Amino acid sequence: MISKVSKKGLTNIPTKVRKALNIEEGDLLIWEVNREQSIAIIRVVKNPLKYLRGKYNDPELTYDKVEEISEFLLMRELHASD
Fold first, then answer.
1. What is the DSSP letter of 13?
2. Which of 60, 66, 69, 73 is 20–30 Å from 28 (CA)?
3. Across all residues in the chain, what is the average pLDDT?
4. What was the pLDDT predicted at 51?
5. What is the pLDDT of residue 6?
6. Is 55:69 a contact under the CB 8 Å cutoff?
7. Which residue has the higher pLDDT, 52 or 32?
8. For residues 9 and 29, is the Cβ–Cβ distance under 8 A?
9. What angle do CA 24, 30, 33 make, to 5 degrees?
């Protein structure tokens, strides 16, 4: 599969890749670059806010708390491969 990079550095993720990795709007892509081999490894982190939406019926659950939880989930995912 091939995708082309635009002048602004943008590219599309091919449909087959999105489907195979279940990539959806709001998911985060973590890029790891190996310059020696000229490769990039891309890991998908599911959208933490989407994961949390509707899970909690808590009037105390503020946007800041959700951001804190999503940051924790992201950092946990980043360090999972260490």
1. P
2. 60
3. 83
4. 59
5. 95
6. no
7. 32
8. no
9. 135
Residue 54 has pLDDT above 70, yes or no: no
Asked if residue 43 has pLDDT above 70, the reply is yes
> Terminal CA-to-CA distance of the chain, rounded, Å?
29
CA 60 and chain centroid, separation? 27
Amino acid letter for position 60: E
pLDDT exceeds cutoff 70 at 82 = no
Question: How far, in Å, are 14, 22, 62, 69 from residue 79 at the CA level?
Answer: 27, 21, 26, 15
According to DSSP, residue 9 is labeled S
Reading the block at residue 39, the tokens are 């490769």
The alpha carbon of 24 is separated from its chain's Cα centroid by a whole number of angstroms, namely 9
Residue 36 three-state SS: coil
Contacts with 1 (C-beta within 8 Å, 6 or more apart), sequence order: 14, 16, 17
